[in-house]
Amino acid sequence: MNLDRDPALEAFRTEVAAFLDTAPTDAIREAGRRTTSAFAPFDQAMQWQRILNDKGWAAPGWPAEYGGTGWSLEQRYVFSEEYARRDLPPLLPNGLQMVGPLIIDKGTDEQKKRYLPGILSGADYWTQGYSEPGSGSDLASLRCSAVRDGDDYVINGSKIWTTLAHRANRMFMLVRTSTDGPKQAGITFLLLDRVDYPGMQIRPIVNLAGEEEQCEVFFEDVRVPASGRVGEENDGWAISKHLLTYERGASVTAPRMRRHLEQIRAAARTVPSPYGGNLADDPVFQRDLGEVAADVISFECVEKLIHSGHPMAKDPATPSMNKVLGSEITQRLTVLRTRVAGVGAVPRQLEAIEVGSGVEPLGSEFELTAMPWYLNSRATTIYAGTNEVQRDLVARTLGRR
Ligand SMILES: Cc1cc2nc3c(=O)[nH]c(=O)nc-3n(C[C@H](O)[C@H](O)[C@H](O)COP(=O)(O)OP(=O)(O)OC[C@H]3O[C@@H](n4cnc5c(N)ncnc54)[C@H](O)[C@@H]3O)c2cc1C
Fold this sequence. Notes:
This protein is 46% helix and 13% strand. The chain is of the alpha+beta class. Helix 5 packs across helix 7.
């Protein structure tokens, strides 16, 4: 993939840049600068999605017939580069990158008609109800049950770590519909068209950074329509494995990593080094930054190969490998950020970080966001399947060859 010296691509870049320079509101830009996890501040991210959708640009990865852009791989990369360069908030992934593609691939015509428009426009936000206390890596051991009763399923049990459930209006989830045979064989995938059913309770969990991002969700005799089932009853394991390939490697993330590097480099030029000059001149810092920069380049090469339809994209080990590399690079970048921010990263300024609060941070925006980002990124090697388990999957796949 060559992004240079193609006049058509350059014209496309100019068009993208002009739109991204003018379309986002100040609050959306602030939300982008205050993003400290994979999830940008909710209200502004959804507002931004509505603006992008009006332009037809909300889902570059979707097939054009369902509202995707029909862009080439090169165009998608150019878009991601221009997007990252402006520090715009990433769109929230659950609808656009996870359940949307799944419904396109596996949903009924009625489910596509009913759910895809709201996913695309940002009218709906979907939360992911998989994990349970005791069922994380060993997801197939899940116990939250759904019993068929007429046209409904009746759900009992609980979920945990359900990201932004308290802001969602819809939920996709895995439930146990049978205890016969192997544990994978009794799971069903359900789409819930509301999260305020009688008997359903959502409790936010405060994370390390002091923010409410994950939740616990409790179900007591919750009656939901069976028409929300994707695939057959007891076939949910295969459906969720299909969705996981989207969750673990379908997005374009390298441009955002490169943007992190640029910000870190720029901030390091303003920090004095105890050995004279500034931190950017310090050989130890240069070595550490250089090592991450080299890994970002290799990650980007792999990402481009995957998206360009290289046979690697079909390899079952690839999404796991991508997840391990991407999450570990993200963590290393946040370590470098906190190192550059130094003591400026220590105060916990929850009000100042809130978009639109108007509360002035004690230091720079770089310092304000460094520690929450570092703390939140501790979880990148856990969610979407822990890295230990991903490494195990890669090893087992390679071992079979
Ligand atoms: C910030 C965050 C957001 C999340 N968002 C969501 C969400 O929106 N929806 C959702 O459903 N879930 C979500 N999760 C849950 C996440 O998917 C689970 O935390 C994850 O699958 C790990 O499960 P666990 O926490 O039960 O840990 P465990 O499975 O108990 O693992 C504990 C440790 O044991 C290791 N381990 C376990 N099994 C093996 C093995 N076979 N081989 C080697 N090592 C092993 C693990 O790697 C880990 O280090 C989120 C989690 C976090 C932290």
